[in-house]
Amino acid sequence: GIENKGVNNFDPYIFEKYKYYLLNKIYFSEQLYYYSRCFLTSSVQGLLSVHDIVAQKGYDPELPPLPDNIEEEDEDSVKIISLFKSQEPLGATIKRDESTGAIVVARIMRGGAADKSGLIHEGDELREVNGVQMEDKTPEEIIPIMAQSQGEVTFKVIPVPGIKEELSANETMLFVRSLFDYNPEEDPAIPCRQAGLGFKSGDILQIVNQEDDTWWQACRHGDSNSRAGLIPSRQLQERRVALQRPKALFKPQRVPKKVTGDDLSNKPPPEMGGATQTPTYLEVAPYCRDPKEGRRLVLLVGPSGVGLSEMKRRLLLSDPDHYGVPVPHTTREKRKQEKDGVEYHFVSRQTFEMDIVNHKFLEYGEHRGNYYGTSLQSVHKVIGEDKVCLLDVQPHTVQRLHTTEFKPCVVFVKPPSIQELRFSRRKATFISTQDMTKLTKTFSEEDFEDMISSAEAMDSHYGHLFEMVVVNGDFAMAFNKLRAELEKLETAAPQWIPVEWTSHTKQNTESLC
Ligand SMILES: Nc1ncnc2c1ncn2[C@@H]1O[C@H](COP(=O)(O)OP(=O)(O)OP(=O)(O)O)[C@@H](O)[C@H]1O
C-alpha cells in the first residue's frame, strides 16, 4: 500500500504515508474487533457483510498533491514537507543567516508540530511556504504568513547537511524549581519573544533542551501544552544576576529575637558569605513519602518581628494533632504552674553548657541571664509522633537541617511594604531584648526599615533554600495561605524536593551533631 509518487529522495513523504498506513491498520483492526464482538450475538452473515463494507473502504492517506514546479536540479537537495498545522504555532523560530542572507530555521521547539514531525531541523533553509517564495522576505514578514496558514502547509526547504530525519528524541528528565520570576515579554534579549516561556518563582519546569548555552527549552510541569518554550539558561541568569545584584549587606538586626541563635553577637554568621548562591534553578526530583518515613520538617524563616512565632502558634492551635513544636530547654527557674518537659525542659546552667559543647542544640541563646535552646533530640521526638514539626529558626540553621533526613520545607515569611507594615502593626507589640527596662515595645519606623532590609538580605543569601514565600501583611490572609500551602504539601503527589535528597547516598544522611 505504499506508493512512491516518482520523486527521488522523497523519504519524508513515504515515511508520513507509512505512518498513516500503520494508523489505519490499527483502526481497521479495532473495527474488526468491534464487529467480531457483534459476531457473538448476531449472525455470521451480518458480520461478513460488515467485513465486506470495511474491507472495501479506502484507508489510504489523503496527502496533498505534490507541487508541480519542482525543478530537475532541485531534486537532490530540495525537500518538500507537508505538515498538518492546527491553530497552534509550528514550534520553530527562523532568522536570516548573516553570511548567506537565506532564511533558516533557527530553533525547533521541543514538543511543537515541527519537532513532532521530525522533518524540519535547525539550520534548514526555508525556500517556500505554501508556494510563497521566502527569499525576498524578512523573518518579520514570514511569521504572519506562517501564523495564518492552517491545515496542510507545504514547505520547500534545503536541508542542513548531515541530519538524519527522526522523530523527537526521548525527552530529557531534568526537572528544576525556578527561583526567580521570568516574563519573556519584558526580556529584550530573548531571540524570539513569542517562543518564550514565562514562569513564577517556585514553578516546576522540565528542561527539555540544553543544547544552547544561553537559551534552554522547557515546559512547565502540569501544563497541558507540551510545546516547550525558551527560558534563560542557568549561565545566562547567573550573569544577569551578577550584573544587577546590589551588594546586599547583612545589616545587624535591631529587633532582637527572644532566643537568639548560637551566634549571640547579632552579626551575620560566618557561613553567611559562603551561603550565597545565585537564585536560578534548583534541580528537583519527584518524591512521595513512604508512610513509614517521618513527615517533612517545616522551617519558618524571616526577619525578627515579622510574625514567625505567631504563625507557628496559630498553626498549632488550628490542628494540634497534626502539628507539633519541640519543647525547648532553659536554665530559668520553673514557675509554679509549669511542668518539666511540657513548657520547657528545665536544666541547670552546667548541663546546658555541657550540651552546647556536645552540639546538642540546633540553636541556643541567652535572654535576661538565662539560656534557651532547641535540641535536635526534641525535634526528633515530634517527628517520631508522626507530626509535622514546626520550627522557627535563623536562616543559617536552615543549612544544617537541609538534609535528606529532615527534607525540610522552608517557608520564608516576608514583611509587606513599609506602608502596609505601618498599618497592620499599628497596635502590635513585640518582646524587646534590647531594652531591659521594658518587656514589650511597639514597632518603630526604624524597626520596620530593619525588618525590610533584613528580609532582603536573607532572600539574597538564602533564597535558593526557600520553598514557599508568604508575605505577612494582613495576618488572616497570610495565615490562610500558609495553611493551605502546607496542606497541599501533605497531599500533593508527587512533591518536588532537591534531587540530592532522593539519591540514596550516605553523604547526607549523617546525623547532625
Ligand atoms: N500580620 C500581622 N499583623 C499585625 N500584627 C502582627 C502580624 N504578624 C505578627 N504580628 C504581631 O507582631 C508581633 C511580633 O510577632 P512575632 O512575635 O510572631 O514575631 P517573630 O517573627 O516571632 O519575632 P521574634 O523572633 O523577634 O520573636 C506580635 O505582637 C504579633 O502578634
UniProtKB/TrEMBL annotation:
InterPro entries assigned: GK/Ca_channel_bsu, Guanylate_kin-like_dom, Guanylate_kinase_CS, MAGUK, P-loop_NTPase, PDZ, PDZ_sf, SH3-like_dom_sf
Guanylate kinase-like domain boundaries: 295-487
Ranges for domain SH3: 171-241
Pfam families cross-referenced by the UniProt entry: Guanylate_kin, PDZ, SH3_1
Gene3D superfamilies: 2.30.42.10, P-loop containing nucleotide triphosphate hydrolases (3.40.50.300), SH3 Domains (2.30.30.40)
Superkingdom of the source species: Eukaryota
Region (Disordered): 255-277
Classification via PROSITE patterns: GUANYLATE_KINASE_1, GUANYLATE_KINASE_2, PDZ, SH3
UniProt keyword annotations, A-Z: SH3 domain
Domain PDZ, residue spans: 80-161
CDD domains to which the protein is assigned, alphabetical: GMPK (cd00071), PDZ_MPP3-MPP4-MPP7-like (cd06799), SH3_MPP (cd11862)
Recorded family membership: Belongs to the MAGUK family.
Name of the protein this chain belongs to: MAGUK p55 subfamily member 7-like
Organism this protein belongs to: Salmo trutta
